[in-house]
Amino acid sequence: MKQRVAALLSAILFVSGAAALVFQTLWFRQAGLILGNSVWASSIVLASFMAGLALGNTASAALGDRLRRPLLAFALLECTIGATGFAVVLGSFWLPGWLAPLLRPVAETPLALNGLRLTIAFVLLLVPATAMGVSLPLLVRVLFEGHANYGAVLGRLYGWNTLGATLGAVAGDAFLIGKLGVVGTAGVAAALNVAAALGGVLTGRLLALRPEPFARQTVPEGPSPIVRTRSSVAILLGAAFLAGGIFLALEVVWFRFLLLFIRNDTLGFSLLLAVVLVGIGVGGVAASRWLERDAGAARFASAMGLVCGASCAAAYALFRVALRPFLAGRITGLPGVLYLALCLMLPCALATGMLFPLLGAAAKRASDAPARATGRFVLANTLGSALGPLVGGFVLLPVLGMELSLFGLAAAYALVALLALAAEGARRLRPFVVAAGLSFGLALALFPFGVMQRVYFTVPVLRMSEGGEQLVGLREGLTETILYLRADRFGEPYSYRLVTNSFSMSGTTWLGRRYMKLFVYLPVALHPGVKRALLISYGVGSTAKALVDTPGIESVDVVDISRDILEMSSLLHASPAENPLHDPRVHVHIEDGRFFLQVAKEGYDLITGEPPPPKNAGIAYLYTQEYFELLRNRLNPGGIVTYWLPVHDFTEREAQSVIAGFCAVFPDCSLWNGSDLDWLLMGSRGGVAAPSEDAFRRQWRDPKVRKELRALGVEVPEQLGTLFMADSEGLRGRTSGVPPLTDGFPLRLSREIPDRDTIAHYREWADSDRARQAFLESAWVEKVFPPGLREATLPYFAHQGWINRLMPNLADGPAEVEPRMTELHELLADTPLETLPLWLLGSDADEARIVNGLVRRGQGDASLKLPLAFDLLSRRRYAEAAAAFRATSADGMPSYEALALALGGHMDEARAAIARVPASTDAHPPEAQEIAYWRWFSEAFGLPNPHGSPP
Length: 951
Known about the structure:
Elements: H1 2-35, H2 39-63, H3 70-91, H4 95-103, H5 110-144, H6 150-209, H7 230-258, H8 266-293, H9 301-323, H10 334-363, H11 370-424, H12 431-445, H13 451-456, H14 458-464, E1 470-476, E2 481-489, E3 492-500, E4 503-507, H15 510-526, E5 532-536, H16 542-549, E6 555-560, H17 563-568, E7 586-590, H18 593-599, E8 604-609, H19 625-633, E9 635-646, H20 652-665, E10 670-675, E11 678-684, H21 693-696, H22 703-711, H23 717-721, E12 724-726, H24 728-734, H25 756-766, H26 768-777, H27 779-784, H28 787-793, H29 797-806, H30 817-830, H31 835-840, H32 845-856, H33 865-874, H34 878-886, H35 894-903, H36 907-915, H37 928-941
Parallel strand pairs: 5-6, 5-8, 6-7, 8-9
Antiparallel strand pairs: 1-2, 2-3, 3-4, 9-11, 10-11, 10-12
Helix pairs in contact: 1-2, 1-3, 1-5, 1-6, 2-5, 2-11, 3-5, 3-6, 5-6, 5-11, 6-8, 6-10, 7-10, 7-11, 8-10, 9-10, 9-11, 9-12, 10-11, 15-16, 19-20, 20-24, 26-29, 30-37, 32-33, 33-34, 34-35, 35-36
C-alpha cells in the first residue's frame, strides 16, 4: 500500500510539475507583451513569480499540517492554479491596452515605472504562484505519514516534480504552442492541473478506504544523526538559501556562455532548461533512494556541496574537448545543443539535485511537522533562487564576466559545505568530506583562467571572419555578450560587424547599409514632410545615421533594449561628431520596443525598425499582426512604417505569414528589394499623398545624402522605383490562404531555415522583369509616383536585374564574362551610373574611398593601382584609368587598358595595348575566359582580336 501511494503521489507531482512549467513558459512569454522584455522587466516578472512561490512556501509552513484533508486541499490548489493560470494567459491579450494609460505617465521615470511593473506582475501571478508554492509541502506531509524517512520522501517527490517540469519545459515550445497556440497550450496546462487534482482526490479516497496499511512506521534515522538544534536548522536553511542562489546564478552564466556557440531560439533555450531540470530531478530521485537505504545519508550534505563546486569547475575546464567537433560552424541542430548542454551543466545539476534532499533531511528536527519543515526549507531555497539570477545577471556578468563568474560561483559552494559542517557540529572531518574537499581544491587550482579569451571568444570570431576580420571590441553586458569585428583594406578600416553572442547582427558593408538606410531614404522620397521619426533597434547605427543626415527631420527617438550596444557603437566613429547618438535631435530610450509603442505619447511621421533576427528567442512578437497594429497606432495621419523582412531566415510560408499580418494592418502595404534577401515592408496610416517630382528628387540634391545614395547603388531617383516588388494586391495574392503570424500563434515561425527551393522562389519574387511588370500594372504606383518619374524608372529595372545577379543569394550562378562586359560597356556608355560599374568590376565605393585617400596622402604601394584603376574607369576618366592599368605590373593589364582606351575613343592607343597581349603558343594556350573576353571586345569596338583574325 505504501509503495502504491508513493507511486501515485510521485505521478501526481510529475503531472503538476509539467503543468507548472507549461504555465511558466506561457506567463513569461505573455508578460513580455504586458510589461516589455527589457532586462528589468524580465527580472521583475521572475522576482514576482518567486515571491508568489515564497508566499506559498510560507503558507504551507504555517498551515499545511493543520489541514484535516491535505489531498483535498491539494486538489483545490491545483484547480486554482489551472483556473487563474489560464486567466492570466487569456488576460495578457487585452491587458496591455488597459494598462497603457496607467503606465504612460511614468514611462520616462524608471524607478516609478519598474515599481508599477513589479506591482502588476505580483498581482497577476500572486494566486497561481502562491498555490504552486503550497503544493509540494502538502504531498510531502501525506507521504511522510506512512514513511518515517523524511529525506527520502522529500527527494522522491521533489525529484519527480522536477522531472515533470522537464517535460513541460520541452513540450510547450517543441509541440504545444506551435500546434495549439498560446490559448490552446494554456488549456492543456489547465487540464493537467485538473488531472493532478483528480489524482489527489482519488488518492485521498484510497487512503480513506484503507488507512491501516499506510500507518506510519518507525524507522531508525541512521548512524551519526546530525544534531538538530534550532541554531543548526537555521544554519542549514542558510545553506539551502545559498545553494539555490548559487545554482540559479550559474544557470544565467551557463546560458550566456552557451549562446556563444548555439542558436538563440526558444526551443534551444527550452532544451538548456530541460537539461538543468533533468539533472536536478534525477539527482533528487537518486538522493531519495540513497536516503531509503541509509537514513543518515544527510551527513554527506557538506561533501555534496563540495562535489557541486568541483563538478562546475571541472565541466568548464573540460568543455574545450566537448566543443572540438563544433568549431566549424554555429550549432543549430538540437542534438548538438543537447550534447554541449549535458557536458557543461549536467554534472553540477545532478549534484545539486542530490544536495537539496540531503540538506532538507538534515534540516528537519524530530519535532517538526512535515509540511512545516518542507515549507520552511523550500522557502529558504526559493528565496535564494529568486536572488541568484539577479546577482548573476546584474552583478557577476557585467562586473566579472563569464569566466570569473563561473569560478566564483564554483568556489561559493564551499560556503554551502561549511554551513552544513557547522550545523553538524562534528569535531573532526569524516574521510569522505576530506576526499571531497581535496577534489574541490584541485578543481579550483586547475581552473583554466584565460581560456575564455584564448579559445571561447575566438570561436564566433573565426566562424565569421572569412574576410580576415579581427576582434576590436568586446563587452559582457547585461543582456548579451557583444563582439565587434573589423575588416581592413590596405591597412585601413573597411567595415565593422556587430556580433551578439554567436550571431552576426549587423554590419557596415555596403550590402548591409543599403537596406538599412533604405528604411529612411524610401519613405522620405514619398513623404518629404517627415519631421518626427522613431527607430526601434539601433544595430550599428546605419539607419540612425540616415535619419540624422536627412534634412527636415526635427526629432528622432531611438529605442533599444541594450545600453551596451548603444555605447559600443562609438567604436565605429573616428570622432564623436560622426556618431548619430550625439546629434541633439536624437533621444535615446533603453526599453523594449513593443512596450515603448504601448506607452508612447507622441505620434510619428516615420517609424522604422530592424529588430534582432526573428527566430531568436522572443523576437517573433516583433513580427506579429498585433505588433504591426501598435506601429500603425503610433503613426500620424499619412505617416509611414518601413520594416525589415529578412527572408533568408524564413521559409516561404513563414514569410507569407508575416506579410499577411502586415497587410492586414496596412491596406496599402508594399514590398521592396533592399539588398539580396533583406527586403523591406512599407505601409502607411491613411495612405501616401503623391509627392511632386521635385520633392521626390530632393534627397539627391543634398550633398551628404547624395554621396551615400550613390555609394549604395541608388545613384539616381529612378533607381528607387526599381526596388519595388509588389503592392497590396500582389501581396494578398501571394499570401492567400496563409494565416498571419499573431501573438496567439507565435510559433508559426519555426526553427526551419530556407532550403534551395525556397531561395529559388525568392529569386522569382525579386526577378526584375516580374517586378517591372508589377510596377507598370500597380494602381498604387500610378497613384503615388510622379508620372514623369514613373516612366523614367522603367529602363532602370534592367540594371536592378544586374544588381540582383551580384547578390550572394539572388544570383542564379556566377555571371559569364561576355554578359558582364556587355553590361559594363552599356553602363559606361549609356548611363550616368558609377557605383554599379564599380560593383561589376569587383570593387565598391568604400574601397575606392580608402584607395583615393591613401593616394592623396602619398601612402600605399602598388597594390592600390588596380582598385584605383577600377574607380577611375567607373568615373569615366578613361586615360587615367588606362595609365593605372598599365602600371599595375611590369606587363600591365592590356585587356583592361585597351577597354579604357576604347571607351575613351583612343583607338590607336587601344591597338597598341592589344599588341602587347602575350602571343598564345601550344605550350601556353589562352584560357577560355580570355578567348571569350577578346571575342566580345573585338565585336564591340571593331578592334583586332589578339587570338584570332582581325575583323
